[in-house]
UniProtKB/TrEMBL annotation:
Species in which this protein is naturally found: Sporothrix eucalyptigena
Keywords for the protein's UniProt record, in alphabetical order: Signal
SUPFAM superfamilies: (Trans)glycosidases (SSF51445)
Keyword Ribonucleoprotein attached: no
PROSITE patterns with a match to the protein in the record: GH18_2
Enzyme Commission (EC) number: 3.2.1.14
Sequence ranges assigned to domain GH18 in this UniProt record: 27-397
Domain of life, per lineage: Eukaryota
Name of the protein this chain belongs to: chitinase
Stretch forming the signal peptide: 1-23
Amino acid sequence: MFAGFWVIFNLLAMLIQMGPASGTADLRNFMYLTGQHPLVPVHLVETQYITHMALAFMPSSIFNRNSNNDADGNPLGWPMFTSIERTRPLVNPKTKLLVAIGGWGDTDGFVKAAKTNHSRERFARNVAAMVEATGADGVDIDWEYPGGNGEDYKQVPNEKRTWEIKAYPLLLAQIRKELGPDKILSAAVPGKPEDMLAFTPDTMPSIMNSVDFLNVMTYDLMNRRDSVTKHHSGVLNSLMAVDAYMAAGCDAQRLNFGLAFYVKYFKTEHEDCLKRIQKGKTALGCRTLLMEDPDTGGDLGRTGAFSWHDQVPHDVRESFTRAQSAGTYDEHEGGYCYWDEKEDLWWSFDTAETIVNKKMPLVLQSRKLGGVFAWGLGEDGPEFAHFKAMSRAWKKVRDDGWGADPRNSSMVRDEL
């Protein structure tokens, strides 16, 4: 039975590798595979549509070491939750496998690496050694964020990180030099314009000289630093993000926009939200409670998130049930949302339907972007409804071109 399964799996892979006769053949379908949810749905044909997968994360500090051997000369290795070798059989043979370096809160390793020519050379040399040792097809650099506004922005003010804006392109250039032209170098970059400190018309040309493409994190666009309700992965704020990169000089074909396979909620000020609704408005834009410690930047416990694979936290379970059944799509700014008057919670998340009917045509197709990505694949288990809908819509655009209606597919209709 197992052997028969793999025969079918490989046959599907061969058919998919043949590619479309027309359309947008190079359209990227990029997935992060995380250590928190390391699940690859090998039973789904949509897994064969993945063009790139990044294993997340390897800490940036590893690449600042002076030697990759211990005192006895033995290799120190490159620890990660899984390996390139174990992952390759789970995806299409043509899928490019990358190692994602960094992630939210992992800034110190990048800061140390970026400081001097010597530190940049050491970091890049170690990145290339890791790629060679693991058999990866490249790396995805997730420095969140060069120039400031990272997790430690209260401890290290942005004015002390100004130098990183010029150092960031230099670090990328050194990584490209060590990797050579045939390996993939991508970067995950902020989705909120106020966080794009290192991505300007002055720096973008040199950044794009080094990277193959950027993954624009068009999610978490509402976070605990906000004071009013927003869509955390809405259409309008996603367009603002990708438009900002294009205005800075990045070609649309080298941008992937991001989808979040998780749910977010925020505690709101009851009276302010209620007044807006009584005036015939929505709860979009009403005040939240203070969500971040003004001195330390620490989380005050008034916002939360969980993936589709996680169990819903007990204290918000009833509220989330109401959000799923009574939530609505905001046609003005583009996002599925719900304000729970009973518990004063603002909910923001994507449904499979909004991804297909709104996100793909209004963001991917309207801007003719180079692709789409999601954080993260396993986060959408065990049903993988969002992943399936997204990948089927992606395939429709890839096969039929920019004018395709991603909703006009029997596979997508069946899923929705």
